[in-house]
Amino acid sequence: MKANKHLFMRKDTSAQVGIGTLIIFIAMVLVAAVAAAVLIQTSGVLQQKAQTTGKQTTQEISSNIQVKSVEGLRAMNDSNNISSTVDLLKLKIGLNVGSSDVDMNQIVVTITDGSTTNDLVYANNDKSYGSSMHLFSTSSASVNMKELLNGTTTGAGDNVKKFFTLEKIRDEDESFSQSEPVMNTGDLVTMYIGTTNSDAIGYDSLHTLTDTFNSSSSTTANLADSGLELVPRTQVQILLTPEAGATTTADFVTPSTYGVKETVSLYP
Fold first, then answer.
1. Is residue 34 domain-shared with residue 150, that is, in the same domain?
2. Which of 98, 162, 176, 256 could form a Cys-Cys staple with 171, CB 3.0–4.6 A?
3. Are 42 and 236 in contact (CB under 8 A)?
4. Nearest to 248 by CA among 115, 116, 104, 123
5. 117-122 and 163-170 as β-strands: parallel, antiparallel, unpaired?
């Protein structure tokens, strides 16, 4: 038989005592407190940066402008002769589903015909070129469209090279106005981009848009020269760059012939 085993519990109850032990204990508590404070502060900063980054990323992804269609208009003179170029572009602009609000006053539109490039801002933007469009109207989209193309009035000649104008089609919540062109989901607007060139500046009417281009003026108003030349078979690229969000591109090639049409479908 095995011998009975006896278990013994140590009765060593001695411990470290004294001021040195107390100092070490307090030091450990202080180190733990400092480490906890650093961790809490670091996690707070990281959380704030993550939230900011997430918000900016969401805005970049969701704020998307959509070009639904592009039409080109050709100018006419008093003899009903039609210009050989497209002299005005009408872009129907909307927002993708779930998009954040977009301030069109901050949009930069870049248009090129392969040889000339114009960077355009909204007609009421006075930051990019030092002043808003000459004779800009806060109440009338048609007046602004006419002044965009006006090459007769002193000071208006460069409007077409620097600015674009807008006209609302659908705006249920009335968020859009000429002075504050803010678009939200569901809104639909027309963007006018002047593309007249030196061959068309003598023409004075765009019948498809207005009965007579200079109907509001007592003097003949010739079209301004944009520097662009949209003849048949011209490759055109339009970039819409918002303040936040993805850049929207509309690329197209003008038809091989315009025929006798005043209005030409260009995109899509």
1. no
2. 176
3. no
4. 104
5. parallel
- Rounded to whole angstroms, how far apart are CA atoms 190 and 169? 7
Residue 119 is assigned to a structural domain of this protein: yes
Range of the domain at 40: 18-62
Residue with tokens 């038989």: 1
Task: Kindly give, in sequence order, each residue whose CB lies less than 8 Å from that of residue 61, ignoring residues fewer than 6 positions away.
Answer: 245, 246
- Report residue 238: phi and psi, to 5°: -125, 125
- Residue 127 belongs to some domain of the structure: yes
Calculate Rg over the CA atoms of the chain: 33
d(CA 217, CA 194): 19
3-class DSSP state for residue 148? helix
Q: What is the DSSP letter of 84?
A: S
Fill in the DSSP letter of residue 55.
Answer: H
At CA 132, angle to CA 191 and CA 175, rounded to 5? 50
Both structure tokens of 224: 């301004």
Q: Are 131 and 24 within one domain?
A: no
Residues 38 and 155 in one domain: no
pLDDT per residue, tens digit, the chain (268 aa), is: 555 666 556 666 665 566 777 778 788 888 888 888 888 888 877 777 776 666 555 555 555 788 999 999 988 776 778 888 999 999 999 988 777 888 999 999 999 999 999 999 999 999 888 899 988 999 889 888 888 888 766 666 688 999 999 999 999 888 899 999 999 888 999 999 999 887 776 665 555 444 434 444 433 457 888 999 999 999 999 999 988 778 899 999 999 999 888 899 999 8
- The CA–CA distances, whole Å, from 42 to 32, 233, 243, 252 equal 15, 60, 31, 51
Domains of the chain: total: 2
**210 and 146 fall within a common domain:** yes
